[in-house]
Amino acid sequence: MALIVQKYGGTSVGSVERIRSVARRIEHFHRQGHRLVVVPSAMAGETNRLLGLAKELSVSPDPRELDVVAATGEQVTIGLLAIALQERGLRAKSYTGAQVRILTDSAHTKARILQIDDARMRADLEAGTIVVVAGFQGIDEHGNITTLGRGGSDTSAVALAAALKADECQIYTDVDGVYTTDPRIVPEARRLDTITFEEMLELASQGSKVLQIRSVEFAGKYLVKLRVLSSFEAPESTSPGTLITFEEDDTMEQAIISGIAFNRDEAKVSVMGVEDRPGIAYAILGPIAQANIDVDMIVQNIGASGHTDFSFTVHRNEYQKAVDALRRARAAGSFEAREIIGDNRIAKVSVVGIGMRSHVGLASKMFKALADENINIQMISTSEIKIAVVIDEKYVELAVRVLHKAFELEKAPQSA
Ligand code: ASP
Ligand code: MG
């Protein structure tokens, strides 16, 4: 008998029929003797619809009120799910984030969880009640409703699992696990039985959208056992999904490369012919940070005759803002440069694997595979377990396919 937190994504609770099916799955686990805390998202599309209504009234709605509106999506699904469970003869009770006191900071629309009061949930669980808690929302110390950022119910589930010291946190979604890459691009992509937290973080931050990145960080920090599964399989299905593990375990599959991630939401900004002097990186990136723009890759050339070129990538939505901030800084005399140019038709493709630590030659394998297809690499960045390249957006799918093939990711790795 285990204590399990189960999170169901928007498509899993997207209709009354889907909610009934989720209730059947929960009953299946309940009948096996497990204690369950269930965290649903809003019905698919609902959060977008709610935020859209607010945007019809105002171009920049008050974030506090946006949270009041957005949080209603999950309030609907917790109540509906509790009703569906009760219809099956089970004891179930729903709670909003405020009712179980998921205490967050006051950063509306992107709040962070500070503390969870587990007393009420524990009492219910002791009494054999299935506890249904709204994902995505909390309350700050002043009693304001907050939300955790898009995709935040993953983080709610992991935080509840950490607070309750649950045996496992299961994330049910519309895919049956984490894949070597997006199966819509590479049909041979393979579901991974396990992946390490570090790899998952890289894949998530590189644009793989299975889990909210903050939930993975949280799980890694609080040692929550996290598993991604499909809610579209029969409740009795024994498919294990993908388990996110804490460390390399010799008995588990030992892939050198675990997956290929890609991200089309990028843009590149280059400052050409800038003076090569101490403080220049700060002079360029300082204004970007001040404009609250996140920078991803940064590349500076070797200087020649006192000048160099400097490039970095930002989210595509912030491209214009970044270019404008630089032009203003140059006009104000923060730095001198021949030219500020950019390209918002780029994409990033990354090869991720913990085995990179102990294997050489992976970068050249990657570059050769791209060269064979005549794909030009514009920028490169590496970490201990990742090699990422920036390429022209129109070659993303081709790049992902050839890399998947080059690293033979369609084949199951041999166990050690
Ligand atoms: N309903 C919220 C969203 O759409 C939270 C979530 O689904 O995780 O972002
Ligand atoms: Mg989600």
Account of the protein in words:
This protein has 416 residues and is of the alpha/beta class. The protein contains 12 helices and 18 strands. The protein has helices at residues 16-31, 46-57, 63-70, 72-87, 119-126, 153-164, 197-205, 213-222, 280-290, 319-331, 362-372, 396-406; strands at 3-8, 35-40, 92-95, 102-104, 113-116, 130-133, 137-139, 145-147, 168-173, 194-196, 226-230, 242-245, 259-275, 295-300, 307-315, 339-352, 379-383, 386-392. It has an 8-stranded mixed β-sheet, with helices on both faces. Helix 9 (280-290) packs across helix 10. The chain is globular. The mean pLDDT is 93. The structure holds aspartic acid (ASP) and magnesium ion. Magnesium ion (MG) binds at residues 9, 151, 154.
Helix and strand topology:
Layout: E1 3-8, H1 16-31, E2 35-40, H2 46-57, H3 63-70, H4 72-87, E3 92-95, E4 102-104, E5 113-116, H5 119-126, E6 130-133, E7 137-139, E8 145-147, H6 153-164, E9 168-173, E10 194-196, H7 197-205, H8 213-222, E11 226-230, E12 242-245, E13 259-275, H9 280-290, E14 295-300, E15 307-315, H10 319-331, E16 339-352, H11 362-372, E17 379-383, E18 386-392, H12 396-406
Parallel strand pairs: 1-2, 1-9, 2-6, 3-6, 9-11, 10-12
Antiparallel strand pairs: 4-5, 7-8, 11-12, 13-15, 13-16, 14-15, 16-18, 17-18
Residues 10, 41-42, 47, 73, 135-136, 150-154 line the site of aspartic acid.
